């Protein structure tokens, strides 16, 4: 089984370039099949989640081609209207974003059948708001045996949809189902994340009429058809934030390139608040840290609040600061699974309800760790890079879902990390880095 082996204690130093946003890409790739024309999408991150979703889209009958590592051509015109639109479970159960095929297929064919989504085990993750939205547009939605969601409609008709909770997935899914519906759809209490805006911009570039994305009211006027387009995905705000916290935890100096500073405001201001130097440029941010940081309090919230996807990485950083910090997780109920692992490295963290109370320690000690999910896995890598001595991180399959060439990028910053397959390779790494 592949794992990372890491020797910590080196301040990371240098430049790193951020890939396209995974969570925008997943919405955009699914939305691409809404037109019969060819769509070319650039800056697609080459990570497991996008690869798996593309395989599922291909299994539906679409023509999918990699033009280069980060550019994909998709033609939804080869999906047969009367084809079996049951997306193969094998692909779908692996990733959460498979639920986007419900919205795009329902929008295009007025019929969709998708196995209930998998993804990281970070909480209950219901899809009631997705279903509520589809039903408001006139679809009948059933969960049938085998855990499949079947949505069908004679006609989709625009309507007013109020989201009971702010949800990224349901907002994107309803947008996709509504772009080809008759008349006007209004989504109220919509999510405002940068990837919502990116999916809306992509759909508009195909000829959709979506206004208000990025605010909490999105208005969609249905159009007759959508057309081919070329589109480039925005940079990944969470990958950028991960490297920013890595600079602080390792007391390093990293120029994080190819990001949108506005998307990073919640992370940048927290890092400045605890004492890091954060310098913003047009499309990059330099983060430097010298010595131990101060403590703080953080509550995760929908955008523009502090992102839940940055909560574990920030916790790994705060656990090395001076004093007591409190992190409150208000989006997902099961996102503190990294705490046991960090404790084995010497961190002092107590979880009470949806809060983690962190008493900063001076240093971590290397340990053998297991990644419980994607972002928690990234947090453990950060801790291992900051720790004294050697660590291993198992179950890196979670990390590979969302970070492109994570170990390669860390090595380019001077970090000692390698993917190894067995004990012999681990020993070789240890001998090499000393
Ligand atoms: C997206 O998940 C992201 N995934 C997650 O990224 C991210 O953590 C999350 O948004 C929040 O920003 C993708 O984009 C593929 P939600 P999603 O719907 O869409 C509740 C990562 O690490 N809810 O915004 O599944 C839900 O339980 C991942 O990259 C309902 O109650 O999240 C949660 O408490 C993991 N009913 C809250 O809303 C619903 O029908 C927000 O969830 C839908 C959601």
User: Order of strands in the sheet with the most strands?
Assistant: 21-22-1-23
What ligands does this structure carry? ligand EPZ
Structural class: alpha+beta
Radius of gyration: 22 Å
User: What number of structural domains do the residues give?
Assistant: 2
Distance between the termini: 24 Å
Largest sheet: 4 strands, mixed
CATH third-level topology of the largest domain: UDP-n-acetylglucosamine1-carboxyvinyl-transferase, Chain
Q: Please name the fourth-level CATH homologous superfamily of the largest domain.
A: Enolpyruvate transferase domain
Please, what is the average pLDDT? 94
Low-confidence stretches: none
Helical amount: 25-40%
Strand share of the residues?
Answer: 15-25%
Shape: globular
- CATH architecture label of the largest domain: Alpha-beta prism
Question: How many DSSP H or I helices?
Answer: 15
Instruction: Let me know the number of strands.
Output: 23
CATH top level class name of the largest domain = Alpha Beta
Would you give an account of this structure?
Helices cover 32% and strands 24% of the residues. It has 434 residues and is α+β, with helices and mostly antiparallel strands. The chain has two domains: 3-18 and 235-433, UDP-n-acetylglucosamine1-carboxyvinyl-transferase, Chain, CATH 3.65.10.10; 22-232, UDP-n-acetylglucosamine1-carboxyvinyl-transferase, Chain. A hairpin with a 3-residue loop joins strand 15 (277-280) and strand 16. Helix 6 runs parallel beside helix 7. It is globular and about 65 Å long. The two termini are 24 Å apart. 53% of the residues are buried. The model has no long low-confidence stretch (mean pLDDT 94). Bound molecules: ligand EPZ. The site of ligand EPZ has 27 residues, from helix 1, helix 5, helix 6 and helix 12.
